[in-house]
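request received
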Amino acid sequence: MDDSTRAGITPIVMPKWGLSMKVGTVMSWLVEEGAEISVGTPILEVETEKIAKAVEAPDPGTLRRKVAQDGDTLPVKALLGVMAEAEVSNADIDAYVAAYVTPADGEGEDAEAAPACQFAEVDGLRIRYARKGTGNGVPVLFIHGFGGDLDNWLFNIDAVGEKSPVIALDLPGHGQSTARLPGTSIAALAGFVARFMDVLEVEQAHLVGHSMGGAIAAQMALDHPRRVASVALIASAGLGPEINAGYTEDFVAAPSRRELKPVLEQLFANPEPVSRQMVDDVLKYKRLDGVGELLGALSRGVFSGGRQAEQPGLRLKETGKSVLVIWGREDRIIPAHHAGSAPPGATVEVLDGAGHMVQMERANDVNRLLKQHVGV
Amino acid sequence: MTRKMSMKDAINEALDQEMARDPSVICMGEDIVGGAGGAGERDAWGGVLGVTKGLYAKHGDRLMDAPLSESAYIGAAIGAAACGMRPVAELMFIDFMGVCFDQIYNQAAKFRYMFGGKAETPVVIRTMVGAGFRAAAQHSQMLTPLFTHIPGLKVVCPSTPYDAKGLLIRSIRDNDPVIFCEHKSLYDFEGEVPEASYAIPFGEANVVREGKHCSIVTYGLMVHRALEAAATLAKEGVEVEIVDLRSLSPLDMDTVLESVTKTGHLVCVDEASPRCSIAADISAQVAMQAFGALKAQIEMVTPPHTPVPFSPALEDLYIPSGAQVADAVRKTLKGGKH
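response:
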């Protein structure tokens, strides 16, 4: 976006949410032309095949022009609207809109040349991962939670990747990785992720973990301190005993769209993003041979009876690592008061208007905090 | 991981994976043992349209070419199922059911009931359905309602490669006889299919597209015609919801009723002849169970009540089109304003 900024003009473009997104549809504008906008203001609603969400203002300014109309389906990075300061003339904006060329999406039609996802063989399991971003710095490694996959980071990977190399994986038994677990404990999964880093020849990473992935990240900081540059825990397991057992049990058991949808809605403060496609994607995963059994075994190993068996986050102080803790205040899976158990010196942010999937519901804020935390 | 493949290949993969997983899975049918890379006729076909190509090379004599006697080998498959095997018999065209129907509707469908629940008949009969293949009236019918009519049979008709693989695996693992209907015109249709095995439960319709103005309930090839109609109607500001039934027995009426309750309008699209069809059945059930939700008359889109024409021009007119589906939607939406 920076490249296309001209004096006083900020383009609003079709975002890229998730690795498979090629186009999005403008559902409705949420502000009128002439409106003053502050950072983070929802400007317009965009729907992709996976999710519907508001595009938020990247910078403050005045909305001067709606370029896209409601119902338009446009490619990633297409110009949706123009924000500009008062001194920019309408003629300048006309000229800007006329001259705008939608940049090619990095892995658009040439997906064969640079696939969005790759596979690595780790301990005999095939692990799907995405490796993107820019620069030669210490990469940011995203670790999703129980029953999740790397698409849980669809609003985060590209944003954090603007300034840093990023990696996101599907844990074993999850997403499109082999449906087998290296063990049913946080420690076993942490050991596995460390070996995944070996295979990718990643010496050290900033770990960002969501939910169960947060407990894995904390455990890695304890077991493999040299491999971990810092730890960001998002709605994380491992910082206290409570967890909503009803959620994990229902997630494993729900056999159909009708039963699964209300379960997934518990993940959000506002359940609107739980689209047909999101429910379908989770169902497709759960239908794979062996997944039901392994999720049952993992949930019994890690969250038996509504208690978290391992709480590595409580020992993070020993590691001396820089720690960021983010929570959604309305988290119905792991209570937000666990943020209070963050180690001394940690940055702790509890965000309003978000539930367990705070990295989706408050993506802009989470991305800003993550970039500050990893120093990019 | 997932990758793009045709429905034909998805069916082949389902058979291959289930044969590898369970030694009691066997395949029988006319010309199914082709394409094995062997000499001469062994390398011929692999089913009349090549769906089973290559399986003989992997699973050998667990694939059996049957004589041209459907009553013999469909009966043999049902008998083998009653004795503990999991046969997948290929009835080349559903139109040939007449010569083996007793084995299916009066034997396989009844065993569990007649033997006090002690007998199971885990047989799958794969069969090609539908028009558009220029194969005339005796090889082009959509006879799904004839099987759906029989208690004791499960009837499946997928619309995508993903559903074809998952529903066929589910069919093979099921302990009751399943009629698995494959639309010839969808064999080359491609879609994302996971490499790993997975089973899609029966009786769970798929909401292919969400919309608030009108529900279209359909299955098989007609799902794609409904999608064409949806694209046209969207330009007019009409958002239709499309329910793909996937399995016709058992039938997911809950999803149908949920959708009609939301939209208040229903169009049933069926490639089967109109009388006593799936469309007629759904219409009747909705009229009984959700009459209060309906804002206007139910519309049905079906072929005319005639044999499938041999003339290509007439055959194309015979099969319900996206334009006909769109017209039916417009008609019920207008109907409510009277």
